[in-house]
Design a protein that fits this description.
The chain is mainly alpha-helical. 78% of the residues lie in helices and 0% in strands. It has helices spanning 3-9, 18-29, 31-34, 42-69, 71-83, 102-131, 137-175, 186-203, 206-216, 221-226, 228-242, 248-292. Helix 9 (206-216) packs parallel to helix 12 (248-292). The protein is flat, with a radius of gyration of 28 Å. The termini are far apart.
Length: 293
């Protein structure tokens, strides 16, 4: 083969080297690894988002299968508060289905909820990898801090709900009267405890929201301090409304941490505002020195 034939075989139909063509195809699938995000086109951003969504869906599908086989352990964990309530012992507690398909349906639903929680870290990581290339170093640090705090607070809220639920069940059972016996179906029981866990987890993100407002300058720590009394009333009222079990144990288990979070947010906000003032003073001093020079 001649040199011209060899050169022609190394070029594509548009007269460009094959290596450049392959590199361009690779970066179109994974652009953030090879290109500056500022130079990426809208099509390349959408291509990266598509692959990260596909990866998230694949992880969710895998976790669904895993949760289906781990269902006995998941169900045992969810039954824990019911079995630890004051009206039962571990030998007596149990959930009862009312139809032949109810058991299989609740297994599928529980596996789906568990798969969502198990795959949530991977989904957040994929979204994080999609967003962070366009952030500055200080913005990445703040995003990491907020993400870690949100995960910890959500987990803490779920755990508080799980610890509080036995007392809530004891109150609800005693309120029904001495002649009424409880016989729970898994659909209603699991729906209630999952709703309680989800609401506790979401409401425990309250300090993250407040600190974000303080860092954005939308509200000051002094203003939050001035709103303390109305905030106490509003927090207790919201806890009474959003608690799905409507029992005093769950209400106070939600309201007391939220009140503590409110005070902590004020302290964190004062620290943030103090640092902002110091940075502003340093910038002014630096600009004045440059102007004098």
């Amino acid at each position: 083969m001649t040199d011209s034939g060899t050169a022609a075989s190394k070029e594509n139909t548009f007269g460009q080297p094959v290596s450049d063509h392959l590199a361009r195809r690779t970066t179109s699938r994974f652009p953030s690894k090879f290109k500056n995000p500022d130079s990426m086109t809208l099509r390349e951003h959408l291509a990266e988002l598509r692959w990260r969504l596909i990866a998230s869906v694949a992880v969710y599908a895998f976790m669904s299968v895993l949760a289906y086989f781990l269902y006995p352990h998941i169900l045992s964990f969810l039954e824990g508060p019911y079995c630890r309530s004051v009206v039962h012992s571990y030998k007596q507690c149990g959930l009862y289905v009312q139809g032949p398909l109810d058991g299989f349906t609740i297994r599928l639903n529980t596996s789906a909820y568990a798969a969502f929680l198990l795959s949530l870290p991977v989904v957040c990581y994929q979204m994080w990898r999609f967003v962070t290339p366009g952030l500055k170093s200080n913005e990445r640090h703040i995003a990491v801090m907020f993400s870690a705090s949100a995960v910890v607070l959500f987990t803490f809220g779920v755990y508080v709900a799980w610890l509080t639920f036995p007392h809530a069940l004891g109150f609800l059972n005693s309120a029904s009267g001495p002649g009424i016996k409880d016989l729970y179906t898994p659909q209603k029981y699991i729906s209630l405890i999952l709703a309680l866990m989800a609401i506790f987890g979401v409401t425990f993100e309250f300090p993250v929201f407040l600190v974000a407002l303080e860092m954005a300058g939308a509200v000051s720590p002094q203003r939050l301090s001035a709103w303390r009394r109305p905030a106490i009333v509003l927090i207790v009222l919201v806890a009474a409304i959003v608690t799905p079990s409507s029992d005093p144990f769950s209400m106070f288990a939600m309201a007391i941490p939220l009140l503590v979070f409110y005070e902590v947010s004020i302290v964190v906000g004062k620290i943030v505002w103090h640092r902002k003032k110091n940075h502003t003073k340093n910038d002014i001093s630096a600009s004045e020195s440059i102007y004098k020079a």
